[in-house]
Amino acid sequence: MRQGQALIVILLVLAVALTLGLAVVSRTVTEVGTATTQAESSRALSKAESGVEAALSGTIIAGVTATDYSGRQISISEPLAAGESSTIFLATHDTNGNLNLVGGLNAYTGNNIDLCWGTEPGTPVAIEASLYYKELSNYKVMRFAYDPEGRGGFTRSDTDRTNCPTDNVYLNHANISSLPAGKILLRVRLLYNGDVAHFVGVSGSTSFPVQGKNIVSTATEGNTTRKIEVFQRYPDLSPLLDSAVFSGGGLAK
Fold it and tell me: Which residue, 81, 73, 99, 77, is CA-closest to 189?
């Protein structure tokens, strides 16, 4: 009788020990797998970042693609706070990434542009658009200002999103028409929105020239794949351009 009880106790002890052992082994295997995945993920991310760095310096390696960003609808990649500006190029660039002001003018052949802005409800925001163009040997600028509330004497904008880019829900819209020849670039700046940043998009009746490149770098390490996407835009202009006055000769009052 006692021998039978002892056997049962021994079997129970062995079962408990086996359960604990399996739990320890399972946890160890899980931790090793997690550590391996993290290490693979880190190495894959490092490889993907290296691919992006190589592409930004002009070298395309395996696992990396760089495609031109253009089309009839262009969205500025970063939202703008009040006073911040960005550029939509209407002329082409040369192989060195410089604006082609000899043969690349008027690459955008449409005679109108739809402006779309304001992506944060409850923050009425105005926009100033400066169109730079070349007429004969003179560089000129046309300025437009739109506001949903008509502040500052600005032209009142509308809410027609029919021609707006579909990547964001834009709250405000305006159409710039009768564009001149010799178009170089369109400079946009947001006003009245403080630190609340909004996206800006434009839509044209024809395709805009290339604005930069979309770079996608993919790397695999073991069973882990990491992908990084970067937009490399052509160099933007200095914010001082928005407030500066330029003249090839003297200034006339």
Answer: 81
pLDDT band at 179 (very low <50, low <70, confident <90, very high): very high
Which residues have CB under 8 Å from 211's CB, separation 6+?
69, 70, 74, 88, 89, 233, 234
User: Smallest Cα–Cα separation from 157: which of 144, 168, 139, 143?
Assistant: 144
SS3 assignment for 25-37 = HHHHHHHHHHHHH
**How much of the chain, in percent, has pLDDT values that exceed 90?**
58
Q: Which residues contact 135 (CB under 8 A, 6 or more apart)?
A: 180, 181, 182
CATH of residue 151's domain is: 2.60.120
Within a domain: 148: yes
Domain for residue 125, yes or no? yes
Q: Is the pLDDT assigned to residue 142 strictly greater than 60?
A: yes
In a domain, 81, yes or no: yes
Task: Determine the pLDDT at residue 3.
Answer: 59
Question: Is 217 part of a structural domain of the chain?
Answer: no
Residue 195: which domain range? 70-212+235-242
Name the helix (H) or strand (E) containing 251: none
> How many domains are there within the chain?
1
pTM: 0.78
Q: Give the model's confidence band at 249: pLDDT under 50 very low, under 70 low, under 90 confident, else very high.
A: low
